[in-house]
Amino acid sequence: MPPPANPSERAPLLNEEERERESDYFAFTPDQLAKLVDPKSPELLREMGGSKKILEGLKVDPTAGLSSDEGLEDTKQRQPFHLRRKYFGRNVLPEVKQQSLISLIWEAYQDKTLILLSIASIISLAVGISEDYSSRHPEGEPRVGWVEGAAILAAVAAVVFTNAINDYQKEKQFRKLNSKKEDRNVKLIRNGKEQEISVHEINVGDILLLEPGEIVAVDGVYLSGHNLKCDESTATGESDALRKGELEAGGDPFVLSGSKVLEGVGRVVVIAVGPNSFYGKTMMALRKGGSEETPLQMKLDLLAEQIAKLGVAASLIMLITLVIKYFITASMADEFPDAESILASMISIIIQAITIIVVAVPEGLPMAVTLALAYATTQMLKDNNLVRVLSACETMGNATAVCSDKTGTLTQNKMTVVEGILSQKKFEDQKEISKWKNEVAQSIYDVIIQGIVVNSSAFEGKDEKGNAVFIGSKTECALLEFSKSFGVDYNQLRSNDKPVKIYPFASQRKSMTSIIKLKNSVGAEYRVHVKGASEIVLGACTHYVDAEGKVQQFNENSRLNFETIITNYAGKALRTICLAYHDISIKEYEKFDDENPQIKDLICLGIVGIQDPLRPGVVESVEAFRKAGVRVRMITGDNIMTASAIAKNAGILKGGFATTGPEFRAKSKNEQIEIVRRLQVLARSSPEDKTLVVSHLQNLGEIVAVTGDGTNDGPALKMADVGFSMGIAGTEVAKEASSIILMDDNFNSIVKALKWGRAVNDSVRKFLQFQLTVNIVAVVLSFTSAVLSDENESILTAVQLLWVNLIMDTLAALALATEPPSEDLLNRKPTSRFASLINYRMWKMIIGQAIFQIIISMTLINIGYEVFHLDESKPHDQIVMRTLVFNTFVFLQIFNEINCRRIDDTLNVFRNISNNHMFILIQIIVVIGQIAIVEFGGVAFGTTSLNWYQWLVTVLIGSLSLPVGLIVRLIPNFCVPESILNEDFKPEVSQEKMLWESSIGGVAKQLQVARNLKVFGAVRKSKRISVPIPHTSESH
């Protein structure tokens, strides 16, 4: 118990003195204890004096546990374990403070394009309001100068609030999901009695009791127990069950938080809780570090800067041109204008110049990005991708590498019988198992199932989600699942044939044996069932069951056949189990002692191969990634043989490099980078290895997606450009670290995420192609018409530009951002991280369409009166002419929007258009809106009604955007350098090169073997020749 408090203590010194008392009271610090398990360090435990000294240092009796009244005698105001919890902490993680909506709004506003738009809108507002209420404003016209600035400001606000509210709601939903975790109870020893308490009330020093099926909530050191095995696959990636034992006996004494008890029972002393535990430290590490800009965000920021510079340059050129034009015109006039007239004209010119900047800014761009991401994330949920970080969606579109965990991600994390030969009847995959049952003799089938069910310690229970699962050794669970697939009621079988003797699995004999008493049997009275390592059990067999169900004696050939099968299964990284039995008499039964079974004269039923099988669709997904130019790498804690075999089955290991974590870590940095270029499998990896691989890939310019479900995957998921976690099998650590959660745990869903990511990037590019064409034409038209006009006025009014630049842009963003992904997206390579947002083909289309539209518009301005038989001197005909130019300009954009559905050189722009209902709907809305503005816009829009002929001509001229787009696409690219034309990511070592190197290496090995055989043959021959021939007689 803690020493009593000193009454003379003064309050200000309380904390300092308590800290000294704590360090004196406990022999070990939290950091010292945490170092025992991260990584596991038996040497450090020995230095500390083993479990005995740990118990002494933590002031706990291993038989009685902690006292529930510890610390209460110190002062009445304190809770039990006050000193212990203050020093070692509680078994709860500190709650993350949720970002306020205001802070999220501020974060969303830190976008260069939005800031640029805000500046432009404020300038537009100031100029518009001053114009509306100046003496120059024409009487009778509505004061709408403020509308454009206000509308741009409203668009900025809409984007900011949409993003902020979306992030706020997602964070709220995720926190709500986490808060639903059950506050489960655990068993421990306190006051010498077994008690159940909340998992959050566990203290360092508690003696915890572990039972099968339990998820360990703290780190501990093994004290005692029986056959305790833990599954640490979610924590370390190790798929094999780890037997726990005392350090002094050479066992693994460390029980990690987050691991699962598979079988046996045990007592452990708790050495770390909460943030100091293995699980807690991983969770806390994920909270550090802010999010970096995505490739698209960086490109958009760069584009915004370039557009701002171009807009300012165009504005300055216009300002200088108009000022020079004004003074030249004034000097040529009969009377030079007075100062007031000059000032008024200068203000008008400055306003025109500022308008150019406003026109140049692509105000619809942030809205397009927001809409594209919002639409994609909504649709991705239908494809079982829950997007937690909005930007991860577009980042995934440019992914060049996928680093995947094996256990639980590529595989099902469930050992399964995948192949076997029982009663000489083969099944080579799970689909053939039912066929095998129909072929095998019923009597032998009954014996096989009886052996599987009875000779097993596994049992059926509930997992943490309440689902019915088998609990126990993974091998035994696999065999029970095999029997369950035939509809076997294992409880009924066990109650009918209860074992009279059980010899649990032991590492020395590598087998398990159960003996049952036979009912209504003639001759034999007992049956011995044996299962275990194939080579051991097969060696104890003298007979086997043939295809007809008859018992045959082993001969050299039949034994060789079984040994060949075992070798073949081992080559496929299958865990081989031999099933055997033997019927014995009561006299033979009496010879069995209680410790060691007599494993001899057995009848071999057959061999089964057990493996953690690939998830359905993994092979197809890996192939889809390969076609898309995305390289899949397996990074796992499993052994190299199993990992390589699984990787080959999945199609991952093809000519590349497979190595282990320790070998990889031992290399220099340059050697590691060289390995990473060709790496396809990294086995026996630690969490640090995964982050190291991700870091090297990112330094090589790759965009990396990491998939995982375990606690050990957390750091790599956080570091990756995009992190995928499993929604069903994934741990809370993995989900917290990830940016996308796979709700169905299907690796194939990542392919869908890749498609949606590429669709988002394409949508933004399509919109940019359309937006910049509109802006370039609008800027040039405003600039040229103002310079050529006697009044320095643009042919397009401010309100008409508002319709073109804002409403059409927003609607176009919605139309082009909601294009669903197609399979074609997977037939191209990923775009380089450093590729320009607007590529050569896009620039070709933007410039080609802009030149065409400017020529059409300027031609209409100059010869439109003659073409449409209008009188330039009549005010009404002037309004008609302006309306015709405006209508033609709008329809050029409407048809160009169809043209912008493709950003490559594909000629068919109507392909899959029927699948995009939103695009068709918006086109109809825009056309109806344009008709309404022209026919009924009147004074507000500066338009007048057109006749059918004028409508027909303007629409036909607008439709010319489509054939012009076709012509632009047909312009050959032979004169363009490949570096400009090709924006694909180029890996350091291509898949083809790796396959070639692998093939060359394979041939070299075969030649070396052939040379060795040739040399061996020559040596043997020379030995035969060199043997001396004995002489028959010395005298001859």
Structural description of this entry:
This protein is an alpha+beta fold and 1036 residues long. The chain is 52% helix and 14% strand. It is built from 39 helices and 26 strands. The strands form four sheets. Strands 10, 11, 14, 15, 16, 17, 18, 19 and 20 form a nine-stranded mixed sheet that branches. An eight-stranded mixed sheet has the order 8-26-25-24-9-21-23-22, with helices on both faces. Strands 1, 2, 3, 4, 5, 6 and 7 form a seven-stranded antiparallel sheet that branches. The protein starts with 13 loop residues before the first helix and ends in a 10-residue tail after the last helix. Keywords: ATP-binding, Calcium, Calcium transport, Ion transport, Magnesium, Membrane, Metal-binding, Nucleotide-binding, Translocase, Transmembrane, Transmembrane helix, Transport. GO terms for molecular function: ATP binding; ATP hydrolysis activity; metal ion binding; P-type calcium transporter activity. Belongs to the cation transport ATPase (P-type) (TC 3.A.3) family. This is Calcium-transporting ATPase.
- Net shape: elongated
Strands, total number: 26
- Helix/sheet category: alpha+beta
Number of helices: 39
State the share of residues found in helices, binned by percent. 40-55%
| Portion in beta strands | 5-15%
List keywords for this structure.
single chain; 1036 residues; alpha+beta; 9-stranded mixed sheet; 8-stranded mixed sheet; 26 strands; 52% helix; elongated
What's the gist of this structure?
With 1036 residues, the chain is of the alpha+beta class. It is built from 39 helices and 26 strands. α13 (365-382) packs antiparallel against α30 (748-788), α13 packs parallel to α31 and α30 (748-788) runs parallel beside α32.
